[in-house]
Design brief:
With 81 residues, the protein is mainly alpha-helical. Helix content is 73%, strand content 0%. The radius of gyration is 25 Å and the shape is flat.
């Protein structure tokens, strides 16, 4: 397992523990906790999906493409006709 995956799993466990604590220890109504969780679910899931889809390696992809175009030589450049 990657370090990122482990951190996400820990965060999910801590969020559920915090919700249970809020419900039982602080006597917060369940519907308020669920509403707050649903409000946070959308932006957090978008952030996690963008991070997991690899949008951070865009520079590496461009570098790879530019390397391919410069490494291809025509026969005239190699002295062959």
């Amino acid at each position: 397992m990657s370090k990122k995956h482990v951190l996400i799993m820990i965060a999910c466990c801590l969020i559920s523990i915090a919700a249970a604590t809020a419900i039982f220890l602080f006597k917060i109504p369940v519907n308020k906790v669920l509403l707050f969780g649903l409000i946070l679910l959308c932006p957090l899931s978008h952030i996690l999906m963008m991070g997991m889809m690899g949008h951070g390696d865009h520079d590496r992809h461009e570098h790879h493409q530019s390397h391919e175009t410069t490494s291809k030589s025509s026969p005239k450049e190699l002295g062959e006709e």
